[in-house]
Structure formats: structure tokens, C-alpha cells
Recover the amino acids of this structure.
């Protein structure tokens, strides 16, 4: 129960219970207001029927009470049908006169004009209760005080008519007035407390709704599947991942998702039934058979919901993981461990390898025998190969820093001119002539990339192209797409093409994975490092099989493409006229 602050005491309650309800929950106040107005109209109808019966059964009876009851019923019905819900203020205003005032005057008139044994004093409880619920505490106390004064005035009038019964009349008035004050106080306090409790309930409902929405969002975004199943095998809820794993995305809405009705899900059903039977969590690797799609291997874990009482039904929450995802994470962790170990080994190998290469070079200076010179050359060649592998492994262990294409400090390079210079150096180093064509249009296509990283990528791609090309004229080509947009998020592209044989599907699938190579003498890190360098600058590297028209002939070949982010070069700042 909510504890009320001191400002809501029965003597200093500026914010009434009606104001609390009407400000926070207008629908609840409207329901309460219409309830009281309906009760007034109903009471008026009952009084009309009662007075009408008395009038027709006793012809000598005066018709004034019947007229008062009819007028009261008409006024109450008009207020109920024509007036909008409105709270009672802190003063005796027009709204108070239309409701509480009419009730007090009608009931007082009936009590004064009564000619039978009917006592209308208990009816005063209705206006007191109404003003306590729909108005302020002070207004309720004022209404109770007014009714008490009317009762004492009526007792004085009766005493004047019958002096011997005066004490009884005044005692009855005092007791009735005390009851009115008690009703106003208790009803007002109860209304205030109920308004606070209702506000807390609404706040709790809102918090529960938000929490439920958050839970649903989290469950829907989970990579693992989540099912809610009852003890009869009926699927009550499933997140998108579970629907995909169990192939129920396209299931008709009218179809009952029951595990008992699907022959391929019996292993999962057995695990769920075992959880219900033993009242314990279960975990197992199972297989689910999809019709026409083969078998999918899953890791399933069940957990039973808590039972608030013995009569409630327990549910089973099933967590589903694809075995391929589990194995992929295991391979990733294993690869990370191997990378750390390889980096440590490579670092230890570097110094002895440098000593071997230096000793071999010193030894080769004193050799004259051609056979021994060939052996020294073989040692030198393999030492250089080991050095390249060590450098690749060490570079793989160092995570390249990721650049932000919007940062002005990232270096800009002219793609065509830089590619032309790198290709020229590579041709001179490998004595390549007409085998390599350059399609580098003039222009200033500036890309966000580091020059040395671009050199490493192009040299690696050109080495691979030369290894698998036909070594005929125009068997390789380096081209740049010089199309430049005006936005800062435009893209430029460079591609390395060769007329080599198409890659096998198994090789193409793992082309950019580390330590994967189709040749035994390669470390399998070249393309992986190239892709890492591209991603560190926001570029994208891809492979496809394409055709090129060279010398009027169309040749198919392998193409590696790098798409860069571009940014127009910054214009030099002009000096201010005063500083010039």
C-alpha cells in the first residue's frame, strides 16, 4: 500500500482525489461520475414510483411529494444525459448546485413534507458520498456541515411543534450529522488511497509493458532459436531464429505447430517430454529432418518455467543452436589461438633466420665450386621464403588500425598515378613487358588509402596473376574506374585481371581465409592480409569471373576488384588579403 504524503491529509488536501483520477486517468473518473449520476436517476425513479403508489392508494394524500420526486428525477436524468463529466470544485459552484444541491433540497423537502412513516434522512448519505468521491475533502466536510445544520433546524421545528420530544429530535439530528461527517471523511480517504493505488497499478502496468517489449525485442534479435512448448508438445511461441532453424517460416497460420504431428521433430519432442517427466533441465545434440531439405544438426537445451502454484501449467523453454554456428565459433577461437602461437613462433624464428641468411651470404663469398654456389643459392632462396612467411605471420598478428573515411587526417592518393608507378616498378622487377596492360585513365581520382598498403595489395595480386596467367601478350590487365561523384561517399575501383583458369568451387569458397592456399609452397596469408588492409581503410575487396575484350578478342579470366571510398582533395587555403 502506498503511503500518502503529508500534503494529502484530510485538513490540507489541495490536490483532491478527483483531480488525481481525472488528471491521470480521465476514463476512470468518467466511469465514476457516470456511476453516481446513474444512481441519482435510479433513486429518483424509485421515489417517483413510491410516491405515485402512495398517492393513488391514498386519495387524501397531498401530491406535492410526487411533484418533488418527479422534478428530482427529471433533473437527475437531464444531468446524466446532457452534462459532461466534470469534477466538483472547492466551492459551492453551479456544478455543485446541479448535483449535490438538488439532492439536498429534494431530500430535505421530502423529509419536511412527509405525512407517513417514511424517513428520508438516510438519503442524505448519497450527496455526502458523491461529493467525497468527486470533490475535495473541504467540500465534503462543508456539505456534511450543511446537511447537519438542516437536520438541527428540522429538529428545532419539530420541537416547537412537540416540546416533549425535543431531546429525541436533537439527538437524532446529532447522530445523523456525525454519520455524515464520518462518511465524508472515510469516503474521501478511501478515494484518495484508491486513486494512489490505481496510479501505482497503472505505473506498474506501464513498466511491465515496456519490460515485455524489451524482452520480445531481445528474444527476436537472438541468433539462437527460442521455443515455448507445453507438456502436450504444442508450440506456443517461437522467435524468428527458431522458425528459420526449424523451417517453419512459411508454415500456414492455421496449421497447428505441434511437435507430435511432425515426424522429423521426434528427437526434440523426446527431450522435452523427458524434461517434464524428470522436472529437470536437459541438453543434447539432436538432428531435425526437414522434408526435401535434408537433416539439420542442432544443439538443444531445455528449461522449465517456475510454477507459482500447483494448479498452474508448467511450460518448457527450448534454446536451439545450429551446430554449424557452434563449430564456426570453435574454429574461430582455435584460429585465434593458432594465430597467437604462430606470432610467438615467428618472432622467435626471425633472429636465427637472419643469422642463417647472413652466414650463408658470407660463406658464398669464399666459394668457387659451381655446385656449392648452387647450394648456397638454394639456402638463400629458402631463407628469403621463410622470411616472407615470418613477416606475413607477424603482420597477421598485428590488427591494422581502422580509419574513418570522414577524418581529414587520412592520407589521400591519386589512384591512377599511384597504380601506374607501382605497376612500373613491378614490371621492372619481374622483367614483364607486353604481358601486362594498364588501363589507367588520366585524372585526379583521390581515394582514402595508404600508399604502402596499396603497393602491398597490388604487388600481391600481380604476383598471383603472373603465377596463373598464360604468359601471352595482354594476359594481364590493371584498370581503374575513373568515374567520380560529387559526394564525399563516392567510390572508385581498381581491378587486376588475368586470363588464368577458373578457380575450383572449393578454392573460391575459402579464398580469403587465412592459412588457406591451393599451393603447398604458399603460406595462405596473402589474400587474407590484402582484404584486412582494405577493410581497415573502409574499402571492399572481392573476386569474380569476368571477360575482357583485348585486341578484338574476348577472353575470360579471373578478376580481383578493390572498391575504395573517395573524397575530393582539399583545396589549398588562400591567404587572407590583409595577411598577404
Amino acid at each position: 500500500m502506498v503511503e500518502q504524503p503529508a500534503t494529502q491529509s484530510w485538513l490540507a488536501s489541495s490536490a483532491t482525489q478527483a483531480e488525481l483520477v481525472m488528471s491521470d486517468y480521465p476514463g476512470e473518473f468518467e466511469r465514476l461520475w457516470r456511476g453516481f449520476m446513474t444512481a441519482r436517476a435510479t433513486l429518483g425513479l424509485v421515489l417517483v414510483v413510491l410516491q405515485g403508489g402512495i398517492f393513488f392508494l391514498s386519495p387524501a394524500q397531498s401530491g406535492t411529494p410526487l411533484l418533488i420526486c418527479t422534478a428530482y428525477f427529471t433533473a437527475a436524468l437531464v444531468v446524466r444525459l446532457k452534462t459532461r463529466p466534470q469534477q466538483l470544485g472547492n466551492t459551492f459552484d453551479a456544478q455543485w448546485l446541479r448535483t449535490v444541491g438538488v439532492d439536498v433540497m429534494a431530500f430535505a423537502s421530502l423529509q419536511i413534507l412527509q405525512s407517513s412513516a417514511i424517513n428520508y434522512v438516510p438519503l442524505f448519505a448519497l450527496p455526502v458520498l458523491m461529493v467525497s468521491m468527486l470533490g475535495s475533502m473541504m467540500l465534503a466536510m462543508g456539505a456534511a456541515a450543511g446537511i447537519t445544520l438542516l437536520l438541527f433546524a428540522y429538529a428545532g421545528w419539530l420541537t416547537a411543534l412537540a416540546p416533549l420530544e425535543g431531546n429525541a429530535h436533537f439527538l437524532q439530528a446529532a447522530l445523523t450529522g456525525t454519520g455524515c461527517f464520518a462518511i465524508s471523511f472515510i469516503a474521501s480517504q478511501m478515494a484518495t488511497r484508491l486513486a494512489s493505488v490505481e496510479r501505482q497499478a497503472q505505473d506498474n502496468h506501464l513498466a511491465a509493458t515496456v519490460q515485455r517489449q524489451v524482452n520480445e525485442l531481445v528474444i527476436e534479435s537472438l541468433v539462437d532459436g527460442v521455443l515455448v512448448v507445453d507438456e502436450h508438445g504444442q508450440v506456443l511461441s517461437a522467435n524468428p531464429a527458431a522458425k528459420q532453424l526449424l523451417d517453419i517460416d512459411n508454415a500456414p497460420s492455421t496449421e497447428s505447430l505441434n511437435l507430435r504431428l511432425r515426424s522429423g521433430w521426434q528427437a526434440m519432442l523426446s527431450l522435452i517430454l523427458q524434461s517434464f517427466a524428470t522436472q529437470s533441465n536437459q541438453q543434447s545434440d539432436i538432428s531435425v529432418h526437414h522434408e526435401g531439405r535434408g537433416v539439420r544438426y542442432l544443439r538443444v537445451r531445455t528449461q522449465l518455467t517456475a510454477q507459482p502454484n500447483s494448479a498452474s501449467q508448467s511450460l518448457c523453454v527450448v534454446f536451439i543452436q545450429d551446430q554449424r554456428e557452434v563449430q564456426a565459433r570453435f574454429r574461430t577461437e582455435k584460429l585465434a589461438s593458432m594465430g597467437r602461437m604462430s606470432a610467438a613462433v615467428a618472432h622467435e624464428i626471425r633472429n636465427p633466420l637472419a643469422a642463417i641468411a647472413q652466414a650463408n651470404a658470407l660463406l658464398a663469398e669464399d666459394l668457387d665450386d659451381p655446385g656449392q654456389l648452387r647450394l648456397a643459392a638454394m639456402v638463400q632462396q629458402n631463407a628469403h621464403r621463410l622470411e616472407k612467411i615470418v613477416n606475413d605471420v607477424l603482420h597477421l598478428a598485428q590488427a591494422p588500425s581502422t580509419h574513418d573515411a570522414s577524418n581529414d587526417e587520412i592520407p589521400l592518393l591519386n589512384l591512377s598515378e599511384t597504380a601506374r608507378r607501382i605497376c612500373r616498378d613491378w614490371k621492372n622487377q619481374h622483367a614483364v613487358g607486353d604481358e601486362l596492360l594498364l588501363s589507367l585513365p588520366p585524372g585526379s581520382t583521390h581515394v582514402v588509402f595508404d600508399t604502402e598498403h596499396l603497393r602491398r595489395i597490388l604487388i600481391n595480386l600481380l604476383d598471383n596473376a603472373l603465377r596463373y596467367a598464360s604468359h601471352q601478350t595482354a594476359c594481364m590487365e590493371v584498370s581503374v574506374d575513373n568515374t567520380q561523384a560529387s559526394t564525399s561517399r563516392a567510390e572508385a575501383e581498381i581491378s587486376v585481371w588475368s586470363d588464368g583458369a577458373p578457380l575450383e568451387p572449393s578454392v573460391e569458397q575459402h579464398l580469403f581465409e587465412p592459412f588457406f592456399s591451393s599451393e603447398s609452397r604458399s603460406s595462405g596469408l596473402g589474400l587474407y592480409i590484402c582484404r584486412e588492409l582494405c577493410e581497415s581503410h573502409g574499402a571492399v575487396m572481392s573476386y569474380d569471373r569476368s571477360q575482357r575484350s583485348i585486341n578484338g578478342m574476348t577472353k575470360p579470366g579471373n578478376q580481383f576488384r578493390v572498391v575504395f571510398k573517395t573524397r575530393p582533395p582539399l583545396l589549398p587555403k588562400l591567404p587572407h588579403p590583409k595577411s598577404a
Remarks:
- The first strand starts at residue 225 and ends at 229.
- Residues 1-16, 401-407, 484-488, 569-580 have pLDDT under 50 and may be disordered.
- Residues 166-221 form the longest helix (56 residues).
- The two ends are 79 Å apart (CA to CA).
